[in-house]
Write a structure and sequence with these properties.
By secondary structure, the chain is of the alpha/beta class. 43% of the residues lie in helices and 16% in strands.
């Protein structure tokens, strides 16, 4: 991949929250796109401090590398970098490199449990980064649409000198590229199952494969499976995903109430173990109140689970109607029917295949080349 005669494209990647899907997507692109990559990262913790302070650290490091001879054709940054601050601090030479901001999420529609004046800084960081970039890439149409829709109302809160046409400026240089995932670990688990390895549970098994945080609404999930348990239905529950020290109280209560139905509880020890767990399950459930894409559900679908997701957020553009539910009562009803008559495995695998690195990487490669050449937006 090149923009200068016979030379490889030079990409400066900025990721202050180098973990989870942010890291997985970036690592996968670096492994598959033939370019000269410079990767600047910070550990994936204290996200608010990352958003407010990473530009300082990354500007210093990129300036140091520039002084030692590094040069770039395009900057690829996540929304945890304030790109406007980064460019201002890094100096004119680096600021002149065309930049792409990738929106895994956006703070304008991110649910806040506790709102403070300081919280306004995070949506504003997204907005100033978007204005500074030559191109904004969003992981779903829903993410892009909601961000653009919310910008005018947010800016209307300015006490005076309210900026005009900001949403329009951002929309004009924005596009959608879905985040890809690596299917190889799931292929290995499925192949092992076919060769006498891990097999699907004898009882119907439901998995909840999400971060253990409030925006994923674990309360609704546990309420639904507890209702089915009260009815005496025979099924198992696996609760995976990343756990944190400060996790919702409902997890401790659920572990006690589900008893021997709870066959897995916690973050799997490895990606291979995670893949094997998903391959052993029949149904994967999301109860999220916030989801900009939902790579965990895509991976579960690829591993053979039937995905059951809310009929809102980013889900309708990804999943057909028969895989979506509206409200708690329908969730319980759909789960009941899926427990009584488990779905054949792999119904959603072809859907998930649309989001593998093999399918999506060429879109990123084309975008990097186009922006480096000075052609922005859609």
């Amino acid at each position: 991949m090149s923009t200068r005669a016979g030379e490889r494209l030079r990409i400066l990647a900025l990721e202050p929250y180098y973990g989870g899907s942010h890291r997985a997507v970036l690592d996968g692109l670096m492994a598959r796109i033939d370019a000269e990559w410079t990767l600047l990262t910070l550990p994936a913790r204290k996200w608010k401090w990352r958003m407010r302070g990473a530009a300082i650290t990354m500007a210093e490091e990129s300036t140091r590398r520039f002084e030692h001879g590094s040069r770039w054709d395009v900057v690829f940054a996540s929304t945890f970098v304030n790109l406007a601050e980064f460019r201002g601090l890094a100096g004119a030479e680096i600021a002149s490199v065309p930049a792409i901001v990738y929106f895994h999420e956006n703070q304008l529609v991110y649910p806040n449990r506790h709102t403070a004046e300081w919280d306004f800084q995070f949506p504003l960081t997204n907005i100033t980064s978007a204005l500074s970039a030559e191109c904004c890439a969003f992981n779903t149409e829903w993410n892009l649409r909601e961000f653009v829709r919310e910008v005018p109302g947010f800016l209307a809160q300015f006490p005076d000198h309210q900026p005009k046409r900001v949403a329009e400026q951002i929309a004009e240089k924005s596009l959608v590229i879905h985040p890809p995932f690596d299917p190889s670990v799931f292929d290995a688990a499925l192949n092992a199952a076919g060769a006498g390895g891990p097999v699907r549970a004898r009882r119907s098994r439901i998995v909840w494969p999400h971060r253990w945080e409030h925006d994923k609404d674990p309360e609704t999930f546990f309420e639904a499976v507890s209702a089915l348990a009260t009815e005496g239905l025979d099924f198992e529950v696996a609760v995976a995903g990343q756990a944190f020290a400060d996790r919702p109280e409902v997890f401790s209560r659920a572990a006690e109430s589900l008893g021997d139905r709870l066959v897995h509880f916690g973050e799997p020890v490895s990606r291979a173990a995670y893949a094997e767990l998903l391959a052993s399950c029949d149904v994967a459930v999301s109860t999220a109140r916030n989801e900009f894409f939902g790579i965990a559900m895509i991976e579960a679908a690829y591993a053979g689970c039937f995905p059951l997701v809310p009929d809102c957020l980013a889900y309708p553009e990804i999943y057909p109607a028969h895989m979506r539910y509206t409200g708690y009562e329908e969730l319980v009803a759909r789960l009941r029917s899926l427990v009584v008559q488990p779905p054949p495995p792999g119904q959603a695998r072809s859907l998930a295949e649309l989001f593998t690195f093999d399918r999506v990487t060429p879109q990123f490669a084309e975008l990097f080349t186009r922006v480096a050449r000075g052609t922005r937006g859609t």
